Every structure is written in C-alpha cells, then in structure tokens.
Fold this protein.
Amino acid sequence: MRSGKYSPSDSGKIAKRLLDILGAFAGLLFLSPLFLFVFLGVRLTMGSPVLFSQLRAGKGGAPFRLFKFRTMRNSRDASGNLLEDEKRITSFGNFLRAASLDEIPQLYNVLRGEMSLVGPRPLLLEYVPLYSRRQRRRLEMLPGITGWAQINGRNALSWEEKFEFDVWYVENWSFMLDCRILWKTLARVVSPSGISHEGHATMEKFQGTPSSENSEERNA
C-alpha cells in the first residue's frame, strides 16, 4: 500500500476531471426521463420541495451544498423536532435509496467541480472535527457520488471500516481504480445491498473515534 499525501500527476488530475465532466453530462442526458419520473414521484408522495439540499464537507473540509432527491417527509413531534428517520422515510423513498436514484442530482455538483463521480462520500460538516488524523485524509480528495467504501459494504459497514476504505482509496488512487469502482457500482445498483446500517433506517450518526484510538494517535 502506498502512503503519503495524495499527489496524482497533472495528467491524472486532467483524466479524472474529464471523466467527471463527460460522465456527469452523459448521466444527465440519458437519465433525464428517469429524472422526470423521480421528480414527479417525490412531488406526489412527499410534496415540495422535491430536492433535499444540505451543507456537506468537501475537499479540505470546505463546505458546499449537496443536492439529492428527497426520500423523507419533514414530520415533526409536538416540540417541533424532526422524527426519527425510520418514521419519516416513505416507501417511495426506500425505493429511491435502494436503486440509488436519490443521488442523481449530485451530477450537478460534479459539473460544478464540488464533487467527483468517485471519491469518499461527502459527510456532515459536524463530523470533520471528530476525525482522527488518519481519517482526516479522506478530505484530501473531492468527495464522490460513489466510492471504494460504497462497493465494499456501503452502510452495512461501521464508520471506522468506511473511513479505512476511504483512506485506502486516497492512498491508492488511479484512473483505472475509478473505472473499476464505477463498473462495480453499476452491479451494486442492479443488485443493491448495504442500504442501511443494522438497527437503523439509514446510518447512525458518527460519534467520533474511540478514545483509546485517539490516545494511541496522540502518543504515536
């Protein structure tokens, strides 16, 4: 395994960006009928807005606004707090998640240069201060719609396992690895698995690296 800071060649950077632009344009073009179907489905089952947007951590931890199709209602309790995910997600939303169709609007983020087709998934800004030094390496690359962790277990993995896959990707990136991940992602879409974490409708919140691991890192 290679180590050290992620530093692809200029040609590697150009090839990755070209793949992103061509892939995103092709995706938006060929998926436009599906985009319309999902748009109408969300509008009829969950109302408006149809799109969900949220600030996420991009390359270097810089915030950007990510776009997805909504999969949950905005149902709240008597105090005005959002209900648990499993009480808000709809049957149509479950279908979108299983088929990864809720991710289609992120092709717009790719065209804007905020995301890549392949990379570590963009997570909440509040998670960034909780990363260990090693986990923070996942921020060295643009976040992706799919990634090494997604084809190796997705939400069935623990947070620590996900981050290890992300760091491995950063340390071993190549253009051919991206192509391999995209090909395997198609297989995952056809035969989905790992949509949710055990005992949760989606994925439990990241609470930080266990204190024992943090102590070892500080003493290293």
In short: The longest strand covers residues 51-57. The first helix runs from residue 10 to 30. The chain has a mean pLDDT of 86. The CA atoms of residues 99 and 189 lie 6 Å apart.
